[in-house]
Write a structure and sequence with these properties.
By secondary structure, the protein is of the alpha/beta class. Helix content is about 25%, strand content about 25%. It has a domain of about 350 residues: TIM Barrel. The chain is globular, with a radius of gyration of 23 Å.
Length: about 525
């Protein structure tokens, strides 16, 4: 456009390609995996023992509800529920606790400690999780000051913000501060990443959570909103947007990881969303594609159309782990949407998550929770070396029925400030009855993961390829809901296999060179 020219201070490359999104991703991947943020794959970094050997997924529960701050589940109930699900599924789980903060949910940085249910109860719950082989998990705020929240009782940290936070806040060109309102009644200020005090605040919050017995801490609100611009000339950075922001966040993450590993070598750090140049300091990130419609990020019928694709995991799956986030529910009556969420997680290359965030219904849906147990068992066993440490491959095309799933959208009612699911507006989404993906493991084997998310049997054919293994003969293992058999002992590839899947079932086909040993969770061989 005339008069809208822009000259960036760096070289750029513009081109075209032929093919689909896999072809485009392959072009970028060839460059990206040679950059400094891919110097080490996740397996080769200083990760926690439990992350190396395997976990099945996440189960999320709320300690208190909002905006009326009333108990949902005690810390003891949360630990008992996660431990029982772990026992039933046979794999370790991450127990994600929401709304545990003293001032109510998301009242950081000043409203976290001590936990509302009490320090002793919190620590005892974390210890109960550890003793059962599971892992405690919480969120903290990232460069965000929640100054006022219209809860009952209300949260007000304006005076503390003015004394401590205002000097750190992002400034607009006129020197003012933008007070945001993500939900009605929430007063929120973003902080600049450059000041040392901002970084130290993040480090301190992370370490305090480790002191409570948590091993996984997510720095929320970061980097999901993208980089920030700041025009405060007293901060140590050029005004406006710039690489200074990313560099400052990287320094904070590096220091947080260093200090965290000193305190607990088995800790792990996650963020809300991800940015590729933060990979070296993160173990996990939250990924929301399996249930994006529910939380409001995406829905069918948007003007530009489109479908979700696992682009980041396709490029960087060997370098960082991921888990499904944003309130996956296991107590709702809408079964298919939530079984689809669980199956789609595996197909997107992320750890599956279930949960009970809202107080009602009080009990698990027996169908959904039964499928959750199946999914996390598979994710923590035969699928784990591929999901956490493997390379996502182009998946084969399959011809399966399309199903329609109904869901109630996550809602925050402005006129009442009510934080709930909207039972009056039933939405729907269509998708494949079988969610599927292909991965290459560290040992060179290829896993085809097939998840029937519907309550009907599905039969179809799938073409298996060697993806460059280059052997003359291959062994094909078939694992159906944990039952492993040898399907072929000396097969040539490519070949087409018929697959018969029962309702709500998981089939994994593992292709390896004939005579090689089968891969175990965590990538070990036996």
């Amino acid at each position: 456009m005339a008069g809208q020219d822009f000259s960036p201070p760096y070289d750029t490359l513009f081109g075209v390609f032929h093919g689909d999104w896999y072809d485009a991703a392959d072009i970028y991947k060839a460059w990206a995996t040679q950059q400094w943020w891919c110097a080490k794959k996740l397996w080769d970094r200083d990760i926690a023992d439990w992350l190396r050997t395997g976990v099945g997924g996440v189960f999320q529960m709320s300690n208190y509800h909002i905006p009326e701050i009333t108990p949902n589940h005690s810390m003891g109930q949360i630990a008992d529920t996660v431990n029982e699900l772990s026992r039933q599924s046979g794999v370790p789980l991450l127990g994600l606790v929401f709304n545990w903060e003293r001032g109510g949910a998301w009242t950081g940085p000043k409203g976290f400690f001590p936990p509302r249910n009490g320090t002793r109860a919190f620590k005892e719950a974390m210890q109960a999780l550890r003793e059962a082989g599971n892992v405690g998990f919480v969120y903290i705020t990232g460069y965000t000051w929640y100054a006022g929240m219209q809860y009952n009782p209300p949260w007000d940290s304006w005076s503390l913000y003015e004394a401590e936070g205002q000097p750190l806040a992002l400034k607009q060109p006129d020197g003012s501060v933008n007070v945001m309102h993500w939900y009605p009644g929430w007063d929120i200020v973003r902080l600049c990443a450059a000041p040392e005090a901002s970084a130290q605040m993040q480090v301190d919050l992370f370490l305090k959570c480790l002191d409570l017995g948590c091993a996984v801490v997510q720095i929320d609100n970061l980097p999901c909103g993208g980089s920030d611009a700041c025009y405060d000339l007293t901060h140590d950075h050029p005004p406006g947007y710039g690489s200074w922001w990313s560099e400052a966040v990287g320094r904070m993450l590096a220091e947080t990881r260093r200090r965290g590993k000193e305190k607990n070598p088995n800790c792990a750090m996650s963020t809300e969303g991800v940015c590729e140049n933060f990979i070296p300091w993160l173990d996990l990130f939250d990924q929301r594609a399996p249930n994006m419609e529910y939380f409001g990020h995406y829905h069918r019928g948007l003007p530009a159309g489109g479908e979700t694709i696992p682009l980041f995991n396709y490029i960087y799956g060997e370098y960082i782990g991921a888990y499904c986030a944003a309130y996956p529910e296991c107590n709702r009556p809408e079964v298919l949407y939530w079984t689809r969420c669980l199956g789609k997680a595996l197909a997107q290359g992320v750890l599956p998550t279930g949960g009970r965030y809202f107080p009602d219904p009080r009990e698990h849906n027996p169908i959904t929770i039964g499928f959750y147990r199946k999914i996390v068992r598979a994710a923590g066993e035969e699928c784990y070396p591929y999901l956490m440490f493997g390379e996502m491959l182009r998946r084969p095309e399959i011809d399966v029925p399309i199903v329609t799933a109904h869901y109630c959208k996550f809602n925050y009612v402005p006129e009442r400030g009510e934080h709930r699911m909207d039972p009056q507006q039933l939405h729907q989404v269509t998708d494949a009855s079988v969610q599927h993906a292909a991965f290459r493991g560290r040992d060179g084997s290829v896993a085809y993961i097939l998840v029937n998310v519907s309550e009907d049997a599905v039969n179809f054919e799938v073409e298996l390829s060697d993806h460059g293994m280059g052997a003359r003969r291959y062994t094909i293992d078939r694992i159906v809901d944990g039952d492993r058999t040898v399907l072929r002992r000396a097969a040539s590839l490519p070949r087409t296999e018929s697959v018969e899947m029962g309702p709500l079932s998981i089939t994994v086909l593992i292709v390896r060179r004939a005579g090689s040993r089968k891969v175990a969770p965590g990538g070990h061989q036996h």
